[in-house]
Design brief:
The structure is a homodimer of 346-residue chains.
Chain A lengths: L4 H8 L3 H8 L7 H14 L5 H8 L4 E6 L11 H15 L3 E6 L3 H12 L6 E5 L6 H8 L4 E4 L10 E4 L1 H14 L5 E5 L5 H16 L9 E3 L4 H12 L5 E4 L2 H13 L9 E6 L3 H4 L5 E4 L2 H17 L7 E4 L2 E3 L6 H4 L8
Helix pairs in contact in A: 1-2, 1-3, 5-13, 8-9, 10-11
The structure holds a DNA duplex (30 and 30 nucleotides).
Chain lengths: 346, 346
DNA sequence: TATGTTTTTGGGAGCGCTCTCGGGAGCGCT
DNA sequence: AGCGCTCCCGAGAGCGCTCCCAAAAACATA
């Protein structure tokens, strides 16, 4: 027997509408009737059909999380798993289903909007890792499906986003290294076609400037978020003889550390290291990495909260949120060995 | 203006039904008419409403991927990201939407069946990391929503699953270490409430037995998939003075390696190491880990293929598939240093 | 008890699709 | 020209819900 609202209503001696009201927790139902209906629902294990509900109410109870195809290579960085975890957690709390869109190719990515968004499969989307000039963002901007960007988009004014304070974080890392007395501070950055990469670079340079240092271009490198790229960047950086390096992500820092170990350069004795992210790998390396911790999972949670607010109409208009970062001092920067910060290093 | 089938039909001078036929690629439409309709669809950017389609056709075009709450801690192991990637890839290929269910608590997990499966939100589910006596499996077995298990369930006969040949893989690792001349081979296993953990243990012991070795209980440890647990297990194992260790996952092996490095025990000179999984971390460690590679992403792909087959009725009944593993010899086992396998070690 | 007011309930009308069915058009054959 | 056949196409009837509105019931007041 297929259960429907009508059927449950018959069993409880009420109409379809009343059952619907009970299920949706509307108040104008006599307590006695409500209980009777709930009893029937419980004993039959009835669940309203999601498709029918969506069709009638124009709400699906599903939100999408979009991770662009460029991220593919980057999936062995724990950043995305953690973000997904936060997003998922917030979805569970809100009894919302999470649809995950992970792309391998540009073509797949282009299909997203027409196939998923335009068809009303989702009530809204969280978009991550957008790049400058991202076509998906342009499309979303011209459509009327709510969306929230994780990270700062090109056009921040008109878009709701949750970002991390990359700039302040990188600044504090640079300041910390300066204060420790390092004088040739190298930089291994993230791609600058993302605002995160850009901001970390800007923050780093600002930090140095605040100490009165002028950065030598020879000491600047760029990776692509992979461990391997960190490794290569560090090998190349060695020629410039840095006495410390700020690496824009933990994963790249682990690669950088590998290059250092291979060259029998001791960290932090010969070269100090600070990275960015504060993910598990930073705690497992030898030595443990000093790093700028960002609240990845919380960022995901917040993005979902904002999106659901937008979907429900509880909140409106472009909203911006910036999550704080925190410098975590461990072993790799050498602060521990050196006693008070500011003590000369050599 | 809201677009509907009817509306598109009017524009193209045909009926709703004809537009539907064109959209669903049914053949009984004159080419000329078909083109006319397609032109209108293209220029309007019309997309059929997913909810309405689901309601009428009783198919959602969505499948679920379920990762139980126990996995939570385990999310910094690249296994699940890779699996998700495979699943996602297969979904994209089939124009199917992937719903990800990640749980933090038992309670959330219990909500899955009633909220998602019973309501018809998904056409089917892929379930991973099931444990012995998993209640979700019992529930799925008694329902009529298609599902595929990744890994071997308790009750293999009646369930469609995709497993990896853990036993053969572990066996080959044990044999390899034996042949290298190691004599006190330690074991750091995965939890034995999963068939994967069990099979790797069984395979390992079988491998030793095939070499005529009898395993000392002192040399057996168990971790919980985390890097930390591998670290601790290795520290504890040191007392038993193994000359080689087989670790049941790469992540735990990285932890084990860390313990060894800390104790200034050289790998492979003092202790040989072989692990299982063949994930990126095994290639990044120093020394690089010899490991039994399993095709994680392909497993995900295959699970989705089977599930969609089940959903579409293309295939039927319980189907079992076992993916092969492959021993990858790198540095940590010492084979490279020692020349021909079988050469004595000390 | 009659009247007005509020609360509770039931039924109708869709939401935008798919699917079945039957009628008309076009074709070949006798 | 008449017949049967296939091929296309349109109309009707839902799918199982929500939402609105009007009727019924319950309660309050005089």
């Amino acid at each position: 027997m297929k259960l429907t609202l009508e059927e449950i209503g018959r069993m409880a001696g009420v109409s379809r509408s009343t059952v619907s009201r009970v299920l949706n927790n509307e108040k104008s139902v006599r307590p006695e009737v409500r209980e009777r209906v709930q009893a029937v629902v419980k004993e039959t294990g009835y669940r309203p059909n999601a498709a029918a509900r969506s069709l009638a109410s124009n709400r699906t109870g599903v939100i999408g999380l979009v991770i662009p195809h460029r991220v593919h290579t980057l999936f062995d960085d724990p950043y995305f798993p953690l973000l997904i975890q936060g997003v998922s957690q917030a979805c569970n709390l809100a009894e919302t289903t999470l649809a995950l869109f992970l792309f391998q190719t540009e073509a797949e990515e282009e299909e997203l909007y027409p196939r998923v968004v335009a068809s009303g499969t989702v009530d809204g989307v969280v978009v991550t890792a957008t790049r400058t000039g991202d076509p998906l963002l342009a499309r979303l901007a011209s459509g009327d499906v709510p969306y929230v960007v994780v990270g700062r988009p090109d056009d921040p004014e008109n878009v709701t986003y949750v970002d991390v304070d990359n700039r302040a974080g990188a600044q504090s890392a640079a300041l910390h290294l300066c204060n420790l007395g390092y004088e040739r501070i190298g930089f291994i950055g993230a791609p600058t076609n993302t605002t995160a990469g850009l901001d970390r670079r800007t923050g780093f340079l600002e930090g140095l400037a605040m100490c009165g240092a002028v950065q030598d271009e020879q000491l600047m490198r760029e990776g692509d978020y992979t461990e391997e790229s960190g490794y290569r960047a560090m090998r190349s950086l060695l020629a410039a003889q840095p006495d410390a390096v700020f690496v824009a992500t933990d994963t790249m820092a682990v690669g950088a550390l590998r290059a250092l170990v291979e060259s029998e350069i001791s960290v932090p004795a010969d070269v100090g290291l600070v990275s960015f992210d504060g993910l598990p790998p930073s705690e497992r390396s030898l030595p443990k990495l000093s790093t700028v911790r960002q609240p990845v999972s919380a960022t995901g949670v917040r993005a979902v909260e904002l999106l659901l607010g937008l979907v429900n109409g509880d909140i409106t208009g472009p909203l911006h949120e910036v999550m704080p970062t925190e410098l975590v001092i461990r072993e790799s920067c050498g602060a521990a060995r050196m006693g008070a910060p500011g003590a000369p290093h050599h």
